[in-house]
Write a structure and sequence with these properties.
This protein is mainly beta and about 170 residues long. It is built from two helices and eight strands. It has an eight-stranded antiparallel barrel. The longest helix has 12 residues.
Length: about 170
C-alpha cells in the first residue's frame, strides 16, 4: 500500500494564465482494501500540524492507480503526484487510522494520523483531521475558520465529480 500526495495547480485567466495556488490532494489507505481520496482544506489554527481535509471519494485499493491516471488525463500537466510512499495502516479507534510511512518523503515528513471529524461533517461534506508533519508552501495553506466554504471552493476546482462514478466503493 502507498500513500500519495498530489497537487492540482490552479490558474486564473483566459489568455494569460496566472498561477493562483495549489489544491493539495491525498490518497490515503485506511485498510488493505480501501482508500480515501482527500482534499486539504487548511491547517487548524489552534493546533499546529493538524489539517482539515475533505473526503472527495472513498474507493477500493485496486482502483487507486486507474483513478490517479484518470486525474492526470483529466487535468493534464496541472495534476502532479509529488510523493508516493510505501505505508501500512492500522485502525486505532472508531474512524481513526494510523498511516505509518516506511520512509519519509519530500512532502510527507512523518507518519499520519487520520480521524473522522464528527463535529464539522455533514451528510454532503465528510471531513477528516490529518495530523502529521507535512511540507507545503505556506501561502497555499489556509487557516480559515469557515471549513464549509473552503470545501465548496475546493470542489469547484476539482470540477465535475461524475467522473468518479466507476471508482466509488460499492
Amino acid at each position: 500500500m502507498n500513500v500519495y500526495y498530489c497537487v492540482l495547480k490552479n490558474y486564473k485567466g483566459t489568455f494569460e494564465k496566472k498561477h493562483k495556488g495549489n489544491t493539495h490532494l491525498f490518497f490515503v489507505p485506511i485498510t488493505n482494501d480501501e482508500y480515501l481520496y482527500l482534499g486539504l482544506l487548511g491547517e487548524i489554527v489552534d493546533d499546529s500540524g493538524v489539517y482539515a481535509t475533505q473526503l472527495i471519494l472513498r474507493t477500493e485499493s485496486h482502483m487507486v492507480d486507474p483513478l490517479i491516471d484518470g486525474e492526470e488525463e483529466h487535468f493534464g500537466e496541472r495534476f502532479l503526484v509529488l510523493d508516493e510512499l510505501s505505508s501500512s495502516t492500522k485502525q486505532t479507534g472508531e474512524s481513526t487510522y494510523l498511516i505509518k510511512v516506511s520512509k519519509n518523503g519530500t512532502y510527507i515528513k512523518s507518519d499520519l494520523e487520520l480521524s473522522y471529524d464528527h463535529v464539522h461533517s455533514t451528510d454532503k461534506q465528510k471531513l477528516y483531521l490529518m495530523e502529521g508533519t507535512l511540507n507545503f508552501e505556506s501561502e497555499d495553506i489556509d487557516d480559515s475558520h469557515d471549513l464549509r466554504m473552503m470545501g465548496m471552493k475546493q470542489m469547484a476546482f476539482m470540477g465535475d465529480l461524475n467522473r468518479f462514478s466507476t471508482f466509488k466503493k460499492k
